[in-house]
Model the fold of this input.
Amino acid sequence: MKKNIFNCLIIVGALSLFSSCDKTEGALYSGEANKVSFLNKTMKFNMEGGSISVPVGRTSTSGELSVPVTLSAAGVGYTDIFKLAGPVQFANGAGESYAKVNYGDLSKIDPSSLAITPVGKDATVGLAFPISLTIPDDNVSVSKINKVDLTATSILEFEDKGNVVMNSTGGWAESSLNVKIQKAKVTSVYKIISPFGENSLAFMIKADGKTVVFPNQVLGNDPTYGPVTMSNVTGTVSNGVVTLNVGAYQVSAGSFGSGVEIINLPK
Done:
């Protein structure tokens, strides 16, 4: 029989949390009734389905209980996109519940990071959005975990957007290329598929619609010097044209120098 995670927590005294999965009847916590707590100070959640549910436990199971929770975030515009569905509601007889956080259009805010993981010649791209939830001091139990810092992460799903022109005359290819481009379904992240015959490359257009984020990425291999990294890239977008100013095409022995890659976004 699958054990509920809430049945594995019991507060002993007022100092610490101990694990106990042997007894599941009666109150899950000792101490003052109808106080609540998050289970951890930090948690990570995969984003799917438009919401995340954060577990909350209470010190008794008798009667219904409603507890307010507040959401905060340092990221610009985050509290416009991430919204609490309401207070945490405990049913009679339940020692556990959830704070539900709904989220909207992620393209309107900037993630804290753009993580790109090579997979063969392709790449998996993920975003991270940090937010925090807080329980009022009057409602928190003796565990004192009244705040949880959440990292909501999203692995992006891409869709094909056809072929576009990539002007690399001042860049690595020293010529103009016709390349396949993909766009993430939920945000302004693009992926250029093997533009130089090897690795795919990804970049993000920030919520201001003008700035491009391009983390250091390996474009492929030089037969003599090995992996070549596009490093210290700054980018801008104007009228549907992305300009990547590459600080260096870096290899272990040094650099091939700087360059410019210009990409026409799909209409």
Remarks:
- The chain has a mean pLDDT of 88.
- The two ends are 54 Å apart (CA to CA).
